[in-house]
Amino acid sequence: MKKFIPVSEPEITEKExxxxxxxxxxxxVSSLGEFIIKFEEEFSKFIGTKYAxxxxxxxxxxxxxxxxxxxxxxxxVIVPDITFIATANAVKYTGATxxxxxxxxxxxxxxxxxxxxxxxxxxxxxxxxxLYGHPANMDPILEIANKYGLFxxxxxxxxxxxEYKGKKVGSIxxxxxxxxxxxxxxxxxxxxxITTNDYNIYNKAKFLRDHAMNPNKRYWHTEIxxxxxxxNMQAALGLAQLERIEELIQKKITIFxxxxxYLNEINEIKLNPEKEWxxxxxxxxxxxxxxxxxxxxxxxISKLKNLGIDSRPFFYPCSLMPMYNKNNFSNxxxxxxxxxxxxxxxxxxxxxxxxxWITENLKNLIKT
Length: 368
Ligand SMILES: *Cc1c(COP(=O)(O)O)cnc(C)c1O
Known about the structure:
The model has no long low-confidence stretch (mean pLDDT 96). This protein is of the alpha/beta class and 368 residues long. The two termini are 27 Å apart. Helix 2 (34-47) runs parallel beside helix 8 and helix 3 crosses helix 7. It is built from twelve helices and 14 strands. The strands form three sheets. Strands 1-9-8-5-4-2-3 form a seven-stranded mixed beta sheet, with helices on both faces. A four-stranded antiparallel beta sheet has the order 10-12-14-13. Strands 7-6-11 form a three-stranded antiparallel beta sheet, with no helix packed on it. The structure holds pyridoxal-5'-phosphate.
């Protein structure tokens, strides 16, 4: 039987199974329980923030963060054009408008110079996305935010443990937002987290997460809240994964180094960037192929698939999507890179043999 190598695979060990078993057996299966408290506590320690608040997924964490800082209809929020669509959609959920800025060639993250060009009197926040595990260039972003009085929400959904100048992402802006979807650096199945040092943001988010119920008066609600809670079972899975996060990140780095080694002499291929100030956690091993276009890229993906090698296209620019394209954004780097980019198998169960097989085939297919 031909082996199928997926783009992504979590690594679940006995530890995870034990913790989840414990949660289920305790009877605390819903959104109260010790694992939730412990997961939040340990996650805030890991990131280096005072507070961490779980949510039911990364998209709700983004929406909750935006709502908690007061983003509403009529506001504008600057997001990178290349990101998973949830970043833009969460802005839309609040009634505000996402404004798409271009990305940088050498980080694949939002370009501070283009942020400056896209600021208007309506701009209220910036969401830098630490794309594919590489941190965005935060210093100039913070400088712009300070100058114009804007909030900075870091979208860290793909970058748990990544560092900018020695600081963990999620501890640099006003708040950070994480996802624990099955393919992320660590998983809870579905789940999310907001990290912050700001008590007011934390407290507001906690309040809105639980139907905006008055903590001192049960079933009394003064605004429209949400149910964005995680379950104790998911938090149990998350805690076990978090206790193994250094090992998991190390695996991603090892996987990247193997790819780098085997693709080293291929000039047409550019692998994930790593700036001198960055610690990349290589969520997805990604390549940009010189002189490629969308057709060539898609045909490469299907040829790899025939060999049992799964791959994904880069994210399309959000501003190409029908619900966002009426604004005529032109972001040259985003519109160039997406056509030439793909994500290669990056799962925790990859072996060196797999990577050798993938890179050998990739080299042959690119030459033909
Ligand atoms: C995965 C992801 C999200 C959304 O997280 P979910 O848990 O799937 O809702 C948001 N932003 C980025 C950049 C992501 O990769």
